[in-house]
Fold each of these.
Amino acid sequence: MNIYVSNLSFHTSEEDLKAMFAKYGEVSSAKIIMDRETNRSRGFGFVEMPSDENGKEAMQALNGKEVEGRAMSVSVAREKTDRGGSGGGGSFNRGRSDNKRW
């Protein structure tokens, strides 16, 4: 079971995250998502547990639990979806059909 954990303290390490969930069963992996530019935690991560039963128990026990002054939000992770588009932002011509710039 892949579990999404958000509202983490920026000081929470992957080892901390793994230890929190290990109380409820085997943890395959624990990953804190880091900002590429600053190399600091983005405040969320993922935990993978091989047993769905243990994963559900951990989610129920840890959702809303306060850690370092922040109430964690724990839920089933959704599959990553393609956002589509070119990623280039808005249209250059601002909705004009004649493609004139001025």
Amino acid sequence: MKKRYIISSLVMIVVLFGLSLTAWFKPADDFSESERRKFEQFPELTTETLLSGKFTSKFEDYATDQFPFRDSWRTLKAYAKFYLFNQKDNNDVYVHDGYASKLQTKIDDASMENALNKMNYLYSTYVKGNTDKVYFSVIPDKSMTLAPEGNYPSLDYEKIGDYFKDNLDWAKYIDIYPYLDYTDYYKTDTHWRQESIVDVAETIASAMGATVEKDYESVTPDKDFYGVYYGQSSLPLPPDKITYLTSDTIENCLVYNYEKNNGTVAGDVYDMEKLDSKDPYEMFLSGACSLMRIVNPANESGRKLIIFRDSYTSSLAPLLVESYSEVILVDIRYIYSHFVGSIVTKEDFADADVLFLYSAMILNDSYSFK
């Protein structure tokens, strides 16, 4: 018995010593592909940082981030929580029917009011008096239908929709909830699948007196897509595939991104290089951008659509270009609201269709709005 204890102790010492040596001598990782965030680097060691406690605090974060085989330990922990201790989630991420989503149950009233105030400002400053064709819609999270099926709690999405429907009296509400269930979203990510939202695009377009194309070519590149929940769950979930819809109209559209060359150089609707980036979903309109114009040369009507949006619109907007000469996308997470008018002019807003389109998750955490 004593020999067994000695062997166990020696093994533990070797393991701890080996991990310590590995931690000290392995190169520090800059970025976590699975967690999609930058890792903490070794903190600056000075008298000031030592005395203030900043060095100790940052070193703890550094040691945690740079721990050897971090992803393997995170996966082991997740397996233990899900399958050994039969817990329902890991890092607030749950999996049901192969779809991962985040536990979120509390509506942040202050955030909702903040979002409402920002939209009221945008309307009164830029839209009012220029056009009366103003619309609003809320994009629900996949958990709206996934959570009840798996007996998980979720946000009250009807309450979120009703709040804005009741308070945005200057916009016509477009209800897209009935057209979405969890299978319309990626299994490992928050976003919806473009190939699954043609009916959503048709509903929004119809409410604005517009149409969408009837025939698209569906293309699925041979690239794996590991969404944000893949890393957060720490489980080796099967990857998604990104499918995009295209047509002659979409292929001929010109995209002007104001964060690249001040919007003077035209790009494509689908940025294929982004398929090899940290977030392949950014292939849709090259990802996050404060201001963007999509010009459709095939439509000479002069009709414009302006969308105040978040990342979900990146995959929806290409499906709405058919009826418009120009679609303008504004994301106030990346540009201050009072700067919008310096690029999107009064002439742009004149008689344009204006759509406020936001996900419920953003509305419930709108503090990134500027």
